[in-house]
Model the fold of this input.
Amino acid sequence: MRVRILFFGALKEIFGSSEMMELREGTDVAHLKGLFEMRVTGRDALMRSIAVAVNQGYARAEDILHDGDEVAFLPPVSGGLR
Done:
């Protein structure tokens, strides 16, 4: 199956803006996230703190991905109004 992966914030600087990826049927969010964790070294804290959205809704680690899904990796947000 093919999924489209989008990266935001600091992740965009590391991985680029987007990527298409072939995955086995039954792949879950945790496995996909692990594939990207293996690509970077020294950024463990960043990778542990990212949120993942599938088709514009927040996803859990155990959620199963499907052909054509859009997966977004979102870094932690800081700042804001006081």
